[in-house]
Amino acid sequence: MSTSTDGRSTRWDAHRAARRRELVEATLRAIRAHGAGVGMDEIAATAGTSKTVVYRHFTDRQGLYAAVCESVDALILRDLERALGATSGEDLGAVDASPRALIAAAIDSYLRLVERDPEVYRFVVTAPLLDTPAGGDPAGPVTSHIAARLATVVAEALRASGRDGRAAAVWAAGLVGMVRAAADQWLTSPDSMPRDELTDHLTDLAWSGLASAWTSQEQR
What we know:
By secondary structure, the chain is mainly α. The protein has 2 domains: 1-58, Arc Repressor Mutant, subunit A, CATH 1.10.10; 69-218, Tetracycline Repressor, domain 2 (Orthogonal Bundle). Helices cover 73% and strands 0% of the residues. The chain contains 9 helices and no strands. Helix 1 (2-34) packs across helix 4, helix 3 crosses helix 4 (61-87) and helix 7 packs across helix 8 (168-188). The chain is globular.
């Protein structure tokens, strides 16, 4: 009896997880179609269901927003891993690439999402579903995960050059904050520059401060 019950429970859990993924994907489609200010009625219509069903799977708008952020978070981290892996020859542990190239790759992977999916990005950073976002920055978990991954790479690069890696977490958080602020302005500017040009400018700005952490031979 217990085995049968456990089996049914497992199948039901898998069904609920799959349904949540479908609803998150529908929400992303609704955001792209209606903009970052999309409402729950539009989300439910895109999903071909009712708001009641959406709330059944996410409890409330906060739960749906968190699920969308989790999806976007995974996408950014995937792109970041690809960018860093391509830059360092897929061996992130060795960090044998130019530290400046790693910084540029990380910046460009963030800006690529902004350029490719601007309304989804606006949705994450502005949290329109939340009447009064609690706990400060609603997009904080997304940017903190990016900073944590970047901190690991920076720390490895510092240690590889014989430097103390303890400052990596602070630098990574500062770098992500700078890029996010620049991305917000870039997204709303009527005469915004191309992504690769913005990447170069931000890399120059970041590297002018970070270069002192590596040997002079690695400085630009």
